[in-house]
């Protein structure tokens, strides 16, 4: 069983640039969630994808967008980067079933630094 | 406004003692609560899940309680070891929320020899 992987591990960008982060879900999982974790804080929910459709969004502006592919891998895109976007971006996969509250399996994260 | 609070100060305890971490929430009606462990520079790792109709859950040296009247969960690690040193996060999920979680800020635990 392969765990959740993310790429790249580290990234440095400048203000105004665009970035794409990638995530491969754990085998058999149909749901992927993205979180932003600032230093010293807990992860904050960005959005979730279930079977290629967005299934909920947190309090993040539209310049944060995502995709889920048929193999359930996912991308997070951030446009017009701002300094406050510097954070650890975490991807979590899970198997969503009706009326279930399953554990989420997190990847190691991508550390984004915006200069 | 909705809020999840965990001890912001680090908890330092001696090896062998029981560590107790607190998670308080306001303006939430969670259907379940999860606890995760996070080591520096790594993603959180799931530990335990407890549902709103459950009072207590155990797994090996771990125990979680959930009091929906007090709006509080307690997380206990018995016979603590230096390897238990990490940040512990509580996360709430709501009915109809899928697997979307709202996390607290986490409590750093240090277990000393």
What's the gist of this structure?
The complex is a heterodimer of chains A (115) and B (113). Helices cover 0% and strands 50% of the residues of chain A. Chain A has 115 residues and is mainly beta.
Report on this model:
The complex is a heterodimer of chains A (115) and B (113). In chain A, strand 7 and strand 8 form a beta hairpin. The mean pLDDT of chain A is 92. In chain A, the strands form two sheets. In chain A, strands 2, 4, 5, 6, 9, 10 and 11 form a seven-stranded mixed beta sheet that branches. Chain A has a four-stranded antiparallel beta sheet with strand order 1-3-8-7, with no helix packed on it. Chain A has strands spanning 5-7, 10-13, 19-24, 31-37, 44-50, 53-57, 64-68, 74-78, 87-94, 105-106, 110-114. Chain A has 115 residues and is mostly beta strands. In chain A, 0% of the residues lie in helices and 50% in strands. Chain B has 113 residues and is mainly beta. Chain B contains no helices and eleven strands. In chain B, the strands form two sheets. In chain B, strands 2, 4, 5, 9, 10 and 11 form a six-stranded mixed beta sheet that branches. In chain B, strands 1-3-8-7-6 form a five-stranded antiparallel beta sheet, with no helix packed on it. Chain B starts with a strand and ends with a strand. The A-B interface holds A 4, 31, 33, 35, 40-45, 48, 50, 55-56, 58, 90, 92, 94, 96, 101-109, 111 and B 4, 31-32, 34, 36, 41-46, 49, 51, 89, 91, 93, 97-106.
Descriptors:
heterodimer; A: 115 residues; mainly beta; 7-stranded mixed beta sheet; 4-stranded antiparallel beta sheet; 0% helix; 50% strand; globular; B: 113 residues; 6-stranded mixed beta sheet; 5-stranded antiparallel beta sheet
């Amino acid at each position: 069983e392969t765990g959740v992987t993310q790429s790249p591990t580290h990234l440095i960008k400048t203000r105004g640039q665009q970035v794409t982060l990638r995530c491969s879900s754990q085998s058999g999982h149909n749901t992927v969630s993205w979180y932003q974790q600032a230093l010293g804080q807990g992860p904050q929910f960005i959005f979730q994808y279930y079977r290629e459709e967005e299934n909920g969004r947190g309090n993040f502006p539209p310049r944060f967008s995502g995709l889920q592919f048929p193999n359930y891998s996912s991308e997070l895109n951030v446009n017009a980067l701002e300094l406050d976007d510097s954070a650890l971006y975490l991807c979590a996969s899970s198997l969503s079933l009706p009326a279930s509250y399953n554990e989420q399996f997190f990847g190691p994260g991508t550390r984004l630094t915006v200069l | 406004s909705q809020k999840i609070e965990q001890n912001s100060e680090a908890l330092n305890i001696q090896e062998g003692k029981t560590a107790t971490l607190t998670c308080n929430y306001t303006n939430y009606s969670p259907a379940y609560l999860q606890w995760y462990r996070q080591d520096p520079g790594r993603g959180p790792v799931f530990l335990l899940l407890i549902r709103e109709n459950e009072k207590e859950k155990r797994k090996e040296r771990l125990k979680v309680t959930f009091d929906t009247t007090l709006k509080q969960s307690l997380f206990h690690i018995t016979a603590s070891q230096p390897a238990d040193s990490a940040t512990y996060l509580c996360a709430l999920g709501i009915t109809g929320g899928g697997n979307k979680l709202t996390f607290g800020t986490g409590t750093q635990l240090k277990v000393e020899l």
